[in-house]
Amino acid sequence: MAKSAPVPGRPRSRDAAGLPAVTPDRIIDAALELTARHGVESWTLRQLAGAVDAYPAVIYHHVGDRDTVVTAVVDRVIAMYELPPAEMEWRSWWRQFLTNLRLVFMRYPGVARRVALNGPSVEAGGPTVDRAMRTLLRAGFEQDEAAMVCRLLVSQACLFISLEDDQRKASEVKAQISGGWGEPPVDPDLSGLATLSESVHERLADPEKNRDYFAELFDYAVDRVLDGVQVRLDEINRGS
Fold first, then answer.
1. Second label for 32, Cα 20 to 30 Å away, from 71, 77, 89, 215?
2. Dihedral through CA 9, CA 12, CA 18, CA 19, nearest 10?
3. Residue 40 vs residues 115, 163, 181, 211: alpha-carbon distances, Å
4. Can you spell out the DSSP letters for the chain?
5. How many whole angstroms from its chain centre is CA 204?
6. 19 dihedral zone (left: phi>0; alpha: psi -120 to 50; beta)
7. How far is 65 from 70, CA to CA, in rounded Å?
């Protein structure tokens, strides 16, 4: 069978068209950028193919389907945060680690939710889990409970970051609802609600304080969960 003739005026190769080669790294770079702009769940494989000037089939060939690409994106993001020194006291280590994790995950909406649901791959998350587990084992937890504590702390942090991702996307609705909670209650007997409304009103009236709300909530949640873990560790150390 005779081969079809090339279409006049169409370059025969990417090189001839002045386009860079499509590689797995370039595909993941583009997916990472789309994730930063739109969130990990809000771009399509066709958009990704367009970002690298290729057909979707090329993405499949070099990396795989969309879930495979997303896994690679999550692994790339996990490699970005800094692990605190291994010799730090366990609570200080976790406080610093989860703070570092939030700062990175915030730049890539949806990644925290993926990690909370599925966890990282062993290849990407192994070094983090190894150091995290060693801090807990050294503090006095047995292996099974150390694993539970590790999952609890990471999951809770990721769920709070996911909440922040979602609320930032719905900022206009959130502002309307928050404004309602900042108004004094109609019923004067609702003293608890009145106290809360006053707190919300003060925060909304201070742009700087309002802007830092998510960070404060995250820090508060992490500290309270760590308080609970500390209580359990104290019981273990007393032999309870």
1. 215
2. 120
3. 12, 15, 31, 24
4. -PPPPPPTT--SSTTTTTPPPP-HHHHHHHHHHHHHHH-TTS--HHHHHHHTTS-HHHHHHHT-SHHHHHHHHHHHHHTTSPPPPTTS-HHHHHHHHHHHHHHHHTTSTTHHHHHHHH---HHHHHHHHHHHHHHHHHHT--HHHHHHHHHHHHHHHHHHHHHHHHHHHTHHHHHHHHHHHTSPPSSTT-HHHHHHHHHHHHHHH-HHHHHTHHHHHHHHHHHHHHHHHHHHHHHHHHT-
5. 26
6. beta
7. 9
Q: CA–CA separation, 105 vs 209, rounded Å? A: 22
Tens-digit pLDDT profile for residues 15-71: 555 566 899 999 999 999 999 999 999 999 999 999 999 999 999 999 999 999 999
The sign of the dihedral angle between the CA atoms of 129, 35, 176, 179 is positive
Tens-digit pLDDT profile for residues 192-213: 877 877 776 676 676 666 667 8
Gap between the Cα atoms of 52 and 105, Å rounded = 24
Does this model's pTM top 0.90? no
The share of the chain scoring above pLDDT 90, in percent, equals 64
